[in-house]
Specification:
The structure holds two protein chains of two kinds. By secondary structure, chain A is of the alpha/beta class. In chain A, the strands form six sheets. In chain A, strands 3-2-4-5-7-6-12 form a seven-stranded mixed beta sheet, with helices on both faces. The radius of gyration of chain A is 27 Å and the shape is globular. In chain B, strands 2-3-1-4-5-6 form a six-stranded mixed beta sheet, sandwiched between helices. Classes of the chains: A alpha/beta, B alpha/beta. Strand 8 (166-170) of chain A pairs antiparallel with strand 2 of chain B.
Chain lengths: 584, 193
């Protein structure tokens, strides 16, 4: 059967065909859709973990008792999972374990541009890198074979243009004979206290050497000879750009990017007059090729920042660029919080109160954008509370009051809760706002332990944030309606004054929530033309449903699009002229 | 089958149904026996940001991205976004664009103005430009949200692919309850000169 699949859908299919029993992840663009697709196969137990470290630990547990398991995350998630990952390299596996890591060159939706190939080398485990959806499926299957044959976890690395691109894929069958999980005790292999681990380190080093040798005959590392003038070593999406831009070049296409098949590289280098490496981000292949004494041209011409395109490859090789039109400068179109988003009023209030907002990663990061412009820091998932603790420790008392951490429900459960425990334990004095919109919104509305539903759509335990905060020692916890600006202002101002930790929880759902009955839209509002004085107060919240019409009236007037408005009523609370009313 | 790859660039604003239109295009080309690759960026762009999707088909397609200046058709859902991405199109390329302006945040709050005469400026650079009143035609077909299918119909007329493949793809990708309206919208778009 043939279908057009995205890289992520193909990986899910590959995992199914490989007999995977457990799939676990924390959502993160561009990796998210892998688990959203494994859930289609009832043979796989798919679940969202609270963070990437936990996801990997779940996968490790399943592997150790013999099941094949899949763990997925985005590149920055690997930093969270790094602790168990390094030691997993030493223990090896029982059932095959594949960790999919989705990198984001060009930072389409990420806070940095890290090259996870370095992790494979650092952790000393093999890494495969597919270059289209068919390879996503095939390499996933192969990764399980390698994992079990070499007793190692295997990383499968994708990039945004692989994860979110679609191409034609032919399906295979789910393999029949996967061993059944059962308890087998092997503490010498699975208990990594120093005495055991010392011995395992030798195993790891031998494994890497063996894989490098075997990689020479691995069919996914292949030479495509076309001419002898120019040879290019490449992998992943870069392979496709090279084929597009340099159709005459001979290519060594690497399917396994760690460890490298050095003998194959030597052989290829000897056949061509001039050797290049075309790879995105770091000179990962290039440096290693140079280290074995083979001269090669790479980052001298290939950009180190951002993703490659056929055009950028052409340019690097000095080929003529296509003629194209130039256009005048236009207003930008950045993303924005949705009309009716429960975060908007909170950020408006924080700006009014001149708070120093220690931010986190989620839709609410958009609170940074004008006109709200109410976010001062943002580093990584769960960091806002810890950073607020640090800032409050060193600021003079008057400034200390201004420190407010904001964090979403999913982000709080991810790693924010650790920061809050630390703040309470170490007597930190800052205000923490948990923006609980009942869902992991930014990545596409995934359930989490605060939303009360599993990925398999079963109702489950729902974390009570108020009780949780009290249980870890926060004395001042209050829940507010974020759509009521007076209530927001009173609560936040009072808690900012308090010289100890306090938590404010907001309790309105995401407007895009999929489950019925959670979000209930209100009637759309309209601007009563005669009453609008053109004061622009309503524009300060940056709602996409409110448009400024400069030509209306003497000074201009606001207009509300009834198709976009869902009646959250925040704008009408800002109107001193009572000009915003329910539409008739 | 010639070796030539046909390049289509879809542009618009998050929420306009661009990704579904790109899915239907890809499905159609696969059904018609071509190799197809499609690329897009989503994530933050879902929230009212600019959305671009690339669809390429032919005997064998390598990169999923349309090389700059190599696009055959620019399939636009909004005027300013279409104008913004004209550099992807080859000289003499074809534009099929929805006659619609959606104000970006800086315009909504009165800081900047929506640029004037976008349609004329596009037609100036690319005389082979079809301006489609997608919204009104979609309302006539029975649902304002089917504007993307009206546009798809107009684009389909400019590609040498049998009608049955388009219909088959739409039937596969569009939810059952919206199918009738979408097939009607597609035919209305296909009927445009």
């Amino acid at each position: 059967m043939k279908e057009i699949l995205s890289g992520n859908e193909a990986i899910a299919r590959g995992a199914y065909e490989a007999g995977v029993k457990v799939a676990c992840a924390y959502p993160g663009t561009p990796s998210t859709e892998i688990l959203e697709n494994t859930v289609r196969y009832k043979e796989i137990d798919s679940s969202w973990a609270t963070n990437e470290k936990v996801a990997l630990e779940v996968g490790i547990g399943a592997s150790f008792v013999g099941a094949r398991s899949l763990v997925t995350m985005k590149h920055v998630g690997v930093n969270v999972a790094a602790d168990p990952l390094f030691t997993l390299s030493y223990t090896g596996v029982n059932g095959g374990l594949v960790l999919v890591c989705a990198d984001d060159p060009e930072l389409h939706s990420s806070q940095d541009e890290q090259d996870s190939r370095n992790y494979a080398k650092f952790v000393k485990i093999p890494m495969l890198e597919p270059s289209d959806s068919q390879e996503c499926l095939d390499f996933t299957r192969l990764a399980y074979e390698i994992s079990e044959k070499y007793d190692t976890p295997v990383m499968l690395r994708t990039t945004t243009r692989i994860s979110h691109s679609k191409s034609v894929v032919t399906f295979g069958e789910r393999i029949g004979a996967v061993k059944e999980p059962k308890l087998e005790r092997n503490p010498a292999k699975f208990v990594m206290l120093p005495g055991n681990a010392r011995g395992r380190h030798y195993v790891v080093e031998d494994r890497t050497l063996q894989l490098s040798k075997d990689g020479v005959s691995l069919p996914i590392n292949r030479v495509e000879m076309r001419g002898t003038k120019m040879g290019v070593i490449t992998a992943g999406i870069s392979y496709q750009h090279v084929r597009e831009a340099l159709p005459e070049a001979s290519v060594l296409k690497l399917g396994m990017v760690h460890p490298l098949p050095f003998d194959l590289i030597r052989e290829f280098a000897s056949k061509v007059d001039k050797l290049y490496v075309v790879e995105e981000l770091d000179p990962f292949i290039e440096d290693q090729v140079k280290a074995i004494g083979i001269p090669v041209i790479g980052k001298e011409i290939i950009p180190i920042c951002g993703e490659l395109t056929p055009g950028r490859v052409r340019k690097a090789f000095g080929l003529p660029e296509n003629a194209s039109s130039t256009v005048e400068k236009l207003p930008g179109r950045p993303p924005n919080m949705c009309p009716g988003c429960p975060h908007r009023g909170v950020f408006y209030t924080l700006k009014q109160l001149n708070a120093y907002v220690s931010g986190d990663i989620g839709c609410y990061t958009l609170g940074f954008m004008p006109p709200l412009s109410a976010m001062d820091t943002c580093v990584c998932m769960g960091a806002s509370i810890g950073m607020a603790t640090g800032a409050a420790k060193v600021l003079p008392p008057e400034e200390r009051k201004k420190v407010v951490a904001v964090i979403g429900d999913s982000t709080f459960l991810h790693t924010g809760i650790n920061g809050l425990m630390d703040m309470v334990y170490n007597k930190g004095a800052a205000t923490v706002i948990i923006l609980d919109n009942r869902i992991t919104a930014m990545t596409g509305r995934q359930e989490n332990p605060g939303s009360g539903h599993t990925l398999m759509n079963d109702p489950t335990n729902e974390v009570n944030f108020e009780l949780l905060c009290k249980a870890i020692g926060v004395k001042n916890v209050r829940t507010i309606n974020p759509l009521d600006l007076d209530e927001c202002r009173t609560a936040i101002a009072e808690e900012m004054e308090r010289p100890e930790t306090s938590v404010i929880i907001t309790d309105k759902p995401c407007v895009l929530i999929k489950r019925e009955g959670v979000f209930k839209p209100g009637a759309p509002l309209q601007v009563v033309d005669d009453a609008c004085a053109g004061c622009r107060a309503c524009l300060k919240i940056g709602c996409p449903a409110i448009e400024w019409i400069p030509s209306s009236g003497k000074k201009g007037k606001a207009h509300i699009d009834p198709l976009l408005c869902n009646g959250c009523d925040v704008c009408s609370q800002l109107c001193k002229f009572s000009a915003i009313k329910e539409a008739k | 089958m010639s070796d030539k790859v046909t390049n289509i660039v879809l542009v618009g604003v998050g929420g306009q149904g661009i990704l579904l239109a790109a899915e239907i295009l890809s499905e159609t080309f696969m059904l018609a026996g071509f190799d197809v690759k499609k690329s897009e960026i989503h994530g933050m762009s879902q929230r009212g940001g600019s959305v671009v999707s690339h669809v390429r088909y032919g005997k064998e397609v390598f990169s999923p991205m349309v090389p700059e200046g190599d696009g055959d058709i620019l399939f636009g859902f909004e005027l300013m976004e279409s104008y913004r991405h004209l550099s992807l199109l080859k000289p003499g390329g074809t534009v099929v664009v929805n006659d619609l302006c959606i104000a970006p945040p800086s315009v909504l709050i009165g800081q900047e103005q929506y640029p004037a005469d976008m349609a004329l400026k596009i037609q100036d650079l690319f005389p082979d430009c079809l301006l489609v009143d997608g919204q009104n035609l979609a309302i006539q077909a029975g649902n304002a949200r089917a504007a993307n299918t009206v546009l798809l119909g107009a684009v389909s007329k400019r590609l040498d692919i049998e009608e049955k493949y388009w219909v088959e793809a739409i039937e596969k990708m569009v939810p059952k309850k919206a199918l009738e309206v979408n097939l009607k919208a597609f035919q209305m778009g296909r009927g445009l000169k």
